[in-house]
Amino acid sequence: MKSDELRKQLRRKLTVMLIPHSNIRPVQLHLSVSLLVALLVSWAGLTMWSGFIVSRHVDYWKTKADEQVMKAKVWYYSQQIKKSREYLDRVRETQLALETLLNMKTRKAIVTSENAMGGPGRADQKELALLLNKQASALSMEDIKEQFDDMERAGEGVLQNYQEISSYIKDQHELYRATPLNWPTKGRLTSYYGLRKFPLDGMDSEFHRGIDIASREGTPIHATADGVVRIASWQGGYGRMVVIDHGRGYRTYYGHNSKLLVSPGDRVTRGQPIALMGTSGLSTGHHLHYEVWRHGSAQNPMKFVKADFEVQH
Prior knowledge:
Layout: H1 2-10, E1 13-18, E2 27-32, H2 33-101, H3 107-112, H4 122-132, H5 141-178, E3 188-191, E4 194-197, E5 205-208, E6 211-214, E7 220-222, E8 227-234, E9 240-247, E10 250-260, E11 267-268, E12 273-277, E13 287-294, E14 297-299, H6 302-305
Antiparallel strand pairs: 1-2, 3-6, 4-5, 6-13, 7-12, 8-9, 8-11, 9-10, 10-12, 10-13, 13-14
């Protein structure tokens, strides 16, 4: 009964009248309900199918665009990595030059070393092959990551080497500042380091642990290296004496002064005036008695007043 009623409703006629806003006669369309439903269903189906086709094409072109963007990014990153690797290579060259200058590692030692190794990594070889085949954009994110890892390892190695160089420079600077260099005062050399006749009687022999430099009274006496004043007072036969501890095992003695310009605990620098020349203590005239000690042993001061720093390692 319901199906008959439905067929009856579908056979009903509908009249659609189109009335224009002009003198043209109105148009009447006579349609059955079933035809109208069929048209609506067809329209809906066509719309859905068109939307599906369009969405597939949109997804395809979107994927293609994303792929091109990704390739562009990979190519850009690969170029940046290449520039960074070139920069690291220049840094390594500078590092090698620094090591050579600092006498840490000579070129001869590098060339003749049995363990000398080098060469490009897998990432370098793959990138070169792609570039030769004009396929630089074919580098994958895995390739980029591998190159980043290689650069990170190279950067860590360069950083470690520079830390070693920095430590070496700091050590050499401290050694230089602690090494007694140059003459402590102006004047004429009147007695050398070593065995000599005792100056007061000219008879007995003694071992002279320093050098004597004679000049006018009041001639400035200078510290020959950076350090801390340990003694600045009267010390028996030395008279008015200054002892400076320079570190790195070095100490210097300055005796027979007429006046002391520093006090115990003072920090002094190379070339700083510390006393004035005199003839205090056991002395036969105005002069400076100068000694250099290292690790508890007296050294010949002449090795220090005339030598380059390089021989004092």
